[in-house]
Write a structure and sequence with these properties.
It contains twelve helices and no strands. The chain is mostly helical and 209 residues long. Helix 10 packs across helix 12. The radius of gyration is 18 Å and the shape is elongated.
Amino acid sequence: MGLNAQQLRAGLDSLGAIEPAFAAAVARVGYPAPRIRERGYATLLRTIVGQQVSVASADAVWRRLDAGVGGATDPAAIARADDETLRAAGLSRQKASYARSLADEVTSGRLDLARLPDDDEAAIAALVAVKGIGRWSAEVYLLFAEGRPDIWPAGDLAVQIEVGRILGHATRPSERLTRDLAEAWRPHRGAAAIFTWHHYGAGADAAPV
């Protein structure tokens, strides 16, 4: 499971000691709520379903998919479903292909979500080997579902924007710069990422003073 409230608070307090700009930002907008997802296949499938659609649309597709295949949390049910069933639930041809790929990886045992490598980069590599799972999806899964404390999704636009705002940059830092800036924040980068999303959601109220 993801980082709990106590872990987030401890991580951000430690981060604030390393980078005072984060301590000031926490003082402005407060600590973020935990972002916790269930570990395993269903969460990854939901990630695929939710790609490039709103939360409400993703929820509607998930409900139709669950009813259509007789239990979307069972990878064997997805593997058995025909194209018509998956498309009727609202999956595009591409997403149906991704869903089947994930189901096949799990049912074959090639992907064991209960035993991903302890090394973060190795775990990311195992996940992105699945068709339809990119680095961002893998990082978010490891952060929200496994609670890995040092995951840093530097490619996320909101993370880049808020790192720039928090640190007082005139422009949004690139992915590479966002990654480089956070090297000093190890091993608390997961808490930093969750805080940037919280800071982003605070909008204008989070502007540096």
